């Protein structure tokens, strides 16, 4: 009778403690994103986090059954702080590459490639070079640590004091914030990726009355050291980012394998056409090997 009682108790405990979901749950991966760069990462009308970076990440991890993902919306600087501290295991927020950041983080293969534009206060003439912004004493608007801000810092480092550009650093991002600062005279110009510029123009009726645009190429950046021009113009891709740890590398390698598969089988292109309404695929040579 005692043996029977013990067996029943054991079965009862097993029934209450065994959870088939948790027993087979994968390694948790918390993905940080800013959620404020439509159409790459944003919260839609139904309060769902979506966008190209987000949906591509979801598709990747549908193939990686050993991981369970969760997204968290955070500020841009907190994204990298969280990656370094272990709060986040991956960043997905239209993240560009720079050499300094690559010393501390792993980058995936590129997930997107799109040109950049100078966006500036409309005046009597079109501005065709970075040198003109400096000559006109125009104030640049940008987040610390992003590629465009680093480009401006590189410009200032290579110029005499009278040819440097004043940089107005911000702690948030978004077209409306830029437009407000432009209207009140705080700043004069910034850099937009092509798709963000398109969305910015479509979502603000008065934009075309206030701003003008110039595609950024080698000629526009003349005056910068050539290696810095190549670093910006030649690297107009975005990536997923991971902590530079053993676990981060393992996760990056797993994600890279799926990204390459998606690039070859058309999944990446289909997502871009569905979400971005255009093809922004990275060049084949940029997909051949891992970024760092």
Can you summarize this structure?
This is Solute-binding protein family 3/N-terminal domain-containing protein. By secondary structure, the protein is α+β, with helices and mostly antiparallel strands. It has helices at about 1-15, 20-25, 50-65, 75-85, 100, 130-135, 145-155, 175-185, 195-205, 205-210, 225-235, 245-265, 265-275, 285; strands at about 25-35, 35, 40-45, 50, 65-75, 90-95, 105, 110-115, 115-120, 140, 165-170, 190-195, 210-215, 235-245.
What does this structure look like?
Keywords: Signal. This is Solute-binding protein family 3/N-terminal domain-containing protein. It holds the Pfam family SBP_bac_3. Residues 1-25 form the signal peptide. The chain has helices spanning 2-17, 20-23, 52-63, 76-85, 99-102, 130-135, 147-157, 175-183, 194-203, 207-210, 226-233, 246-265, 267-275, 284-287, and strands spanning 27-33, 36-37, 41-43, 49-50, 67-73, 90-95, 105-107, 112-113, 116-121, 140-142, 167-169, 189-193, 211-215, 237-243. It has 292 residues and is of the alpha+beta class. The chain has 2 domains: 27-113 and 237-286, Periplasmic binding protein-like II (D-Maltodextrin-Binding Protein, domain 2); 116-234, D-Maltodextrin-Binding Protein, domain 2. 35% of the residues are buried.
């Amino acid at each position: 009778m005692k043996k029977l009682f013990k067996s029943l108790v054991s079965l009862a405990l097993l029934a209450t403690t065994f959870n088939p979901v948790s027993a087979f749950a994968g390694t948790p991966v918390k993905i940080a994103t800013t959620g404020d760069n439509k159409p790459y990462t944003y919260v839609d009308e139904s309060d769902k986090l979506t966008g190209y970076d987000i949906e591509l990440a979801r598709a990747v991890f549908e193939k990686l059954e050993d991981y369970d993902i969760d997204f968290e919306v955070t500020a841009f600087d907190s994204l990298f702080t969280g990656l370094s501290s272990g709060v986040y295991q991956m960043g997905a927020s239209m993240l560009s590459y720079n050499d300094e950041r690559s010393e501390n983080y792993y980058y995936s293969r590129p997930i997107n490639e799109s040109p950049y534009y100078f966006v500036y206060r409309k005046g009597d003439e079109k501005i065709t070079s970075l040198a003109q912004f400096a000559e006109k004493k125009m104030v640049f608007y940008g987040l610390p640590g992003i590629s465009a801000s680093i480009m401006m810092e590189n410009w200032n480092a290579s110029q005499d004091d009278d040819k440097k550009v004043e940089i107005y650093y911000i702690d948030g991002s978004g077209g409306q914030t830029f437009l407000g600062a432009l209207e009140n005279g705080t700043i004069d110009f910034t850099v937009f990726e092509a798709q963000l510029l398109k969305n910015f123009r479509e979502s603000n009726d008065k934009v075309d009355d206030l701003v003008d645009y110039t595609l950024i190429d080698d000629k526009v950046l003349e005056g910068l050291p050539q290696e810095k021009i190549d670093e910006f113009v030649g690297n107009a891709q975005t990536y997923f980012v991971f902590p530079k740890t053993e676990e981060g590398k393992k996760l990056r390698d797993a994600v890279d394998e799926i990204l390459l598969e998606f690039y070859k089988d058309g999944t990446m292109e289909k997502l871009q056409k569905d979400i971005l309404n255009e093809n922004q695929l990275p060049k084949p040579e940029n997909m051949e090997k891992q970024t760092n």
